[in-house]
Amino acid sequence: MNFMNPPLLNSTVPELPLLGRGKVRDIYDLQDALLIVATDRISCFDVVLPTPIPDKGTVLTQMSQFWFQQTGDIVRNHFLSIDLEDAIGHWQSLQPLKGRAMIVKKAMPLPIEAVVRGYLSGSAWKEYQQSGAVCGISLPPGLRESDKLPSPVFTPSTKAPQGQHDENISFERMVTIIGRDRAEAVRNISLQLYAEAAAYAVNRGIIIADTKFEFGVRKDELILIDEVLTPDSSRFWPVDGYMPGGPQPSFDKQYVRDYLESLRWPKQLPAPELPPEVVRKTTENYREALTRLTGPVKREN
User: Fold this and answer.
1) CATH topology of domain 18-106
2) Which range among 50-54, 111-115, 250-254 shows the weakest confidence by mean pLDDT?
């Protein structure tokens, strides 16, 4: 893996129509497919920050490719290729995008996010403290922050526009949005994806505390889309040193969240710049997560 490419805030591919810019990805139309570019933009609290995280887009793309290939026997996904030149051509504008862009099938995204939690953290911890439940699911009393749950729980959320906050919803509310059959399929597939990924990751020194999946419909078939099991869509904690009862060190963007929480920032635009040390540490965390998950298993002597 070659790291330390110049940070990329926005991509430019003049040969292709730009369909839109998401919080961290740029999407181009290939007529019968899409080109998705993972930039080095980072968002926290649903706000895009002005400071890029070098190599972040490369890590997200490489990790998503890895997981799409690992989980293809559970559910079909939209991944087609990461080899841009073979699929599109030898355009000069594609050179900066190598390693950070992938070609995917088109699908109609579902208007919900499928969140699976194996540990009590983040918004789930706050909700549990108030009600003893998460998204309408009652949990045992006396749990501590970062405790492992008796079994993973499915806690869907709405998919908010950029600059607005996602909202945790109950499964029954999700049913009213996408229908019961599709909601049950999303829940079952999400729990299976999480179980297999979590078991794989823990052998490589990473606890997947929670993660979110996104699904789309292509030719009436439910498929996995967007990114999958990355530091942007998951909480990754190191197995070594895991100690429930408080926040955990992480391989995801929690380092950035913690810095932002220390500021008097109202979590809306304009967002503050990140200091060099926070940027450096976050890049290191993303790289370490990719190395651990896609490298050989480290076994104790």
Assistant:
1) Phosphorylase Kinase; domain 1 (3.30.200)
2) 250-254
